[in-house]
Amino acid sequence: GAPPSIKDEL
Amino acid sequence: MNIFRFAGDMTHLISIVVLLLKIYATKSCSGISLKTQELYVIVFLARYLDLFTDFISVYNTVMKLVFIGSSLAIVWCMRMHRAVKRTYDKELDTFRHYFLVLGSFVLALLLHEKFTFQEIFWAFSIYLEAVAILPQLVMLQRSGNVDNLTGQYVFFLGAYRAFYILNWIYRFFTEPHFSRWIACLSGLVQTAFYADFFYYYFISWKNNAKLQLPA
């Protein structure tokens, strides 16, 4: 899948 | 999710709880900068545009709603609540925060990961969050004596981004593709703004004295 981006952070 | 990020989110939540406690328990917002609170509303609204489009986890969605809701509640309280708004030190809260909004937006137009609406607003929210505390810090220096709850509020707010820096270091070493330079640089600047506050906070804690910031 797509690399874990920082957008999963608050 | 790692322990640093969870600690950061919890510290952030604690700072908001302390602020709400101060306002509701003392029915006063003296020493609190309304401008900083308004900037946080803009930060959260600009950053969580994907609230209804990208579902990441229940935790993520719930926390986003809590941050947006609490920051709106605080601004509403300071502007509309009869008893609270009377205690707002308007003459001490004079930082021209519109320049912070404008500057952050211009910077986001120049420095971003992708030139898309969501990415521009995300970078804008990251830059704005870094400077959002400035009106509050300026107001603390002006008001001289800082009451305990306000001091604790600013302390936890500064500590949360420091935990996030540890989280970015941890993710840098554990996730090869992790792209984080915008948030990390901005987070370093954000935490640096608290440096002198942390120093005086530590001194006051060591001497068990009232927190005094030099004018």
UniProtKB/TrEMBL annotation, chain B:
Membrane topology: Multi-pass membrane protein
GO CC list: endoplasmic reticulum membrane
Similarity comment text for this entry: Belongs to the ERD2 family.
Gene Ontology BP annotations: protein retention in ER lumen; protein transport; vesicle-mediated transport
Superkingdom in the source lineage: Eukaryota
Main subcellular location of this protein, as a coarse class: endoplasmic reticulum
PROSITE patterns: ER_LUMEN_RECEPTOR_1, ER_LUMEN_RECEPTOR_2
Keywords: Endoplasmic reticulum, ER-Golgi transport, Membrane, Protein transport, Receptor, Transmembrane, Transmembrane helix, Transport
Protein name, per record: ER lumen protein-retaining receptor
InterPro entries the UniProt entry points to: ER_ret_rcpt
Localization (cell): Endoplasmic reticulum membrane
Matching Pfam families: ER_lumen_recept (PF00810)
Any one GO molecular-function label of the UniProt entry: ER retention sequence binding
Residues spanning the membrane: 56-77, 98-115, 121-141, 153-173, 179-202
